[in-house]
Amino acid sequence: MQQIHIQGGKLLEGTINISGAKNSCVALLPAAILCSNKAIIDNVPDISDVYYLEKIIEQLGGKITKDNDHFEIDCNNIKNTAIKEEYSSKLRASYYFMGALLGKFHYVEMYFPGGCNIGLRPINLHLEGFKKLGAKVINQGNKYIIKADSLKGNFINLDFASVGATINILLAAVLAEGQTIINNAACEPEIVNVASFLTSMGAKIYGAGTSRIKIIGVKELKSGYTEVIPDRIEAGTYLIMGALIGKKITINNIIPEHIESLTSKLLESGAELEIYENKIIVSQNKVKNAINIKSQVFPGFPTDIGQPMGLYMTQLNGFSTYEETIYENRMQYTKYLNQMGANMNVTGQKLSIIGPTPLKGAYVTATDLRAGATMVIAGLIADGDTYIEEINHILRGYSGIIEKLQAVGANIEIIEI
Ligand code: EPZ
User: Fold this and answer.
1) Which of 5, 76, 326, 342 is most deeply packed, by most CB within 10 A?
2) Does the CB atom of residue 369 touch ligand 1 within 6 A?
3) For ligand 1, atom 9, which residue shows the shortest CA distance?
4) At what angle do helices 48-59 and 22-32 cross, to 10 degrees?
5) Which residues are catalytic?
6) From CA 354, how far away is CA 317, in angstroms rounded?
7) How many whole angstroms separate alpha carbon 320 and alpha carbon 176?
């Protein structure tokens, strides 16, 4: 079994180049199969989620040629087959093949998606959207069959501004007859990335990135091109690390506008940030003021940075609070930080933290992707050795995390035990 071993307490210095966004890329790859010939995607991150999506595309008859982060997907021979459970169960985002296959073939057969155990994570909003377009949804045990004689545009109001539902409905609607409106759509930057990719293929999409998206169905989508946007969650994770233990760290290849809710909170707490057009230079805070945060949909504070932020708050002076409003089970990580010396108290979805508390290295577990990244940063700031198990969660979403941290001086390695 593999573990990450970290010897903490060392100030870090240098440059970290941010990779393409996991949460964009996992939608762009399924979206590619909607085109009738070649789809090109640049800046694809090297993460295990991408590997499983590649397997699904190949199983559907797609041919992928890769040159580092440059993917070319030949979709001339895409055919409709039931997606293997061994792949679809590995990640939640496999559900984007529902929208893509329904949109292209009007028929989908696939197993429930996988994903982190951070909450129930139903997909009712996705399925309701498909039904509004004229599809029938059948549950067969742990398999979905979704089919339609034809797909017709409709008005779809989302009860919650779900990222996944917004993208999945978009994928199903671009080839439907007539106009579709997605009201109360999610506004995350990943949605704009997917919409611009589909538009490059000939789709007619208006308002992506706002809470009201209009789609005019077209007959066919031709070749398309896009570049995966920088990963705002990866960037935010390393920014928090820099504010905790950076001597001077340059976080490169970012879009600062995508993480303004984070940078404003870091500045409020006393962080030293130099913000440029596509990079931020961060150094360890001298001033460490307690802060209060509540996660929101974009452009509010992102739930995916809530766990690393919880760690950051343990090092601030006084009483900080964090409230999670998107998922119901994102606080498991606090028990490991408390084992390391933190003072975190969870009541439902509310977290109260008293700092600063020096942390000592310990044996900890990555309970999910972002909690795992939080354990890595905790190990970097703790005194002594930290060992992290269940590291597959971390490698799913942080491209080259070991190499990137070693390059700024971290004593971190993967060990076999
Ligand atoms: C995406 O998940 C991201 N994952 C998540 O990142 C991110 O936390 C989330 O958006 C919110 O920004 C990917 O893009 C692969 P949602 P998604 O639909 O689409 C409820 C990470 O760490 N909901 O916006 O699943 C749901 O239960 C991951 O990278 C329904 O009730 O998020 C949750 O409480 C974690 N019914 C809330 O909405 C539905 O049909 C947010 O879900 C769909 C969602």
Assistant:
1) 342
2) yes
3) 163
4) 10
5) 116
6) 7
7) 49
Beta strands in 75-135 (DSSP E): 107-111
308: CA distance to ligand 1 center in Å? Answer: 18
Q: Would the CB of 121 count as within 6 Å of ligand 1?
A: yes
Closest CA to 353 of 314, 386, 392: 314
pLDDT of residue 114: 63
Q: Average pLDDT of each block of 10 consecutive residues along the chain (417 residues)?
A: 96 98 98 97 95 94 97 96 85 93 96 70 93 95 92 98 98 98 98 98 98 98 97 98 97 98 97 97 94 98 98 98 95 97 97 98 96 98 98 93 98 96
Instruction: Please state at what angle helix 96-105 crosses helix 163-173, rounded to 10 degrees.
Output: 10
- DSSP for 214-250 reads EEE--S----EEEEPPB-HHHHHHHHHHHHHHEEEEE
Domain range summary for the chain, segments of one domain joined by +: 2-19+230-416, 22-227
Q: Compute, in angstroms, the gap from residue 392 CA to the centroid of ligand 1.
A: 20
Q: Would the CATH topology of 2-19+230-416 be identical to that of 22-227?
A: yes
pLDDT at 140: 86
Ligand 1 proximity of 301 Cβ (cutoff 6 Å) = no
Cβ atoms of residues 408 and 387 within 8 Å: no
Query: Which residues in 344-374 are b (16+ Cβ under 10 Å) and which e?
Result: bebeebebbbbbbbebebbebbbbbbbbbbb
Please check whether residue 110 is in contact with residue 83, taking contact to mean a CB–CB distance below 8 angstroms: yes
Q: Which architecture does CATH list for 22-227?
A: Alpha-beta prism (3.65)
For the stretch 215-247, what's the b/e string if a residue is b when 16 or more beta carbons lie within 10 angstroms of its beta carbon? bbbbeebebbebbbbbbbbbbbbbbbbbbbbbe
Query: Which atom of ligand 1 sits closest to the CA of residue 328?
Result: 34
Mutate to test the pocket of ligand 1, among 19, 22, 23 (most ligand atoms within 8 A of CB): 23
Whether 316 lines ligand 1, by a CB cut-off of 6 Å, is no
CATH number attached to the domain at 2-19+230-416: 3.65.10.10
Give the DSSP H or E segment for 389: strand 385-389
Verify whether ligand 1 is closer than 6 Å to residue 370 (CB atom): yes
Report how far ligand 1's centroid is from the alpha carbon of 91 (Å).
12
